[in-house]
Amino acid sequence: MTLAALATTALSTAGLAQSIDQFNIGVLGGENAQDRMTANQCLADYASEALGGVQVNIFTPADYNGVIQGLLGGTIDMAWLGASAYAAVYTQDETAVEPILVKTNLDGSFSYHSIGFARADSGITSLEDMQGKVFGFGDPNSTSGYLIPSVEIPQITGATMEDGDYFAEVVFTGGHEQTIVAVANGDVDAGVTWADGLGDWEDGYNSGALRRASDAGIVDMNDLVEIWRSKPIPEGPIVLRSALPDDVKATMTELVANLHETDQDCAYGVAAGETAGFEPIGHDAYETIIAVRLAEIGG
């Protein structure tokens, strides 16, 4: 049975096609654009079928802000946001998007971690070893790639994240994949990225940027070592633009909710690794992250 058949709504798919002329999916930065396109093309194909044949486009802006502004400006209809990116949208326009679903881990949880890591041959095994060294972070709008580390790491070091205070330099690489490559190449001494923290380090854990980079052959996890792990972070929501027709929102919500059951390979690509599927989520799950973002970097 196709996802179009599973996505039951009050109107036929022909009616859906008449209510919109295209549907745009935004994919956050963090890896190269072609890999993001490839991982999400199956979702775009299913969406086009479920929506009655409308054109479905995948947008892969260079940074997180490209997706944020697309949602705010109405040029992107759906995206999987990190919690901080969702907070960025919400604090600029509370009515712009609606959280609908969240990716769950194999143990049923919907949390992940910011993971600090370094080269295994660097001699760096902890944040204490990073004093006076260069630390790489992905994107200012990334939850795991900057927001949470900027709160939790100073609690350990007793210093700010300003250049020269504890770390010699704090640099933004542009995304999770870029951070992984920068560490592997020795361009920075350590970096942070995201992972569910489940499964084996050698695989890049079960899901996350390390798993995706390992799967792609970008890095051999045996060449890296974990040096820090954050407290659990709530997984970011899949959101839909609030102004979309209700029938379109219902169809896309059911399509993604059924994706793991219908096509596990597609779900693996969309979820950046192993997942138990996608479950309903609401705004309340992100109120703490919104408060942290407002307190730390404004909104």
TrEMBL record:
Keywords: Signal
Pfam families: Phosphonate-bd (PF12974)
GO biological process, one term: transmembrane transport
One cellular component (GO) term of this entry: ATP-binding cassette (ABC) transporter complex
Keyword Nucleotide-binding on entry: no
Residue ranges of the TM segments: none
Entry similarity comment: Belongs to the phosphate/phosphite/phosphonate binding protein family.
Protein name per UniProt: Phosphonate ABC transporter substrate-binding protein
Gene for this chain: phnD
